[in-house]
Design goal:
mainly alpha; elongated; signal
Length: 101
């Protein structure tokens, strides 16, 4: 009886190995598809954002408020970039002082 059971051990190992290899290939394929879908989603979101900005600009031009709002957005973006730059430099200085990279 023991010899009968021992014959199935190599088959079980072969089956387990084969299944693991197929699962690894399937996981890699799913990851590839996920990356492609993510890329498509970002493309769609970018296109939607451009469309929304265009519609906003058209509305502002019709209302005659485009120049004021455009300057306001530029100032807001400059402030945001300045604050982010300051935070970034501060974090870098802290990392250098503590040698934690």
């Amino acid at each position: 009886m023991l010899q009968k059971n021992l014959r199935f051990i190599p088959l079980a190992v072969l089956f387990a190995t084969s299944t693991a290899v197929h699962a690894d290939g399937a996981i890699k394929q799913l990851h590839k598809v996920n990356k492609q879908l993510s890329h498509i989603e970002h493309t769609i979101n970018g296109t939607q954002k451009k469309y929304n900005n265009t519609q906003r600009n058209i509305t502002e031009i019709k209302e005659g408020t485009y120049a004021e709002k455009s300057v306001g957005r530029a100032v807001k973006n400059k402030k945001k970039k300045a604050v982010n730059s300051l935070i970034h430099r501060s974090n870098n200085a802290i990392r250098k002082a503590t040698n934690s990279y």
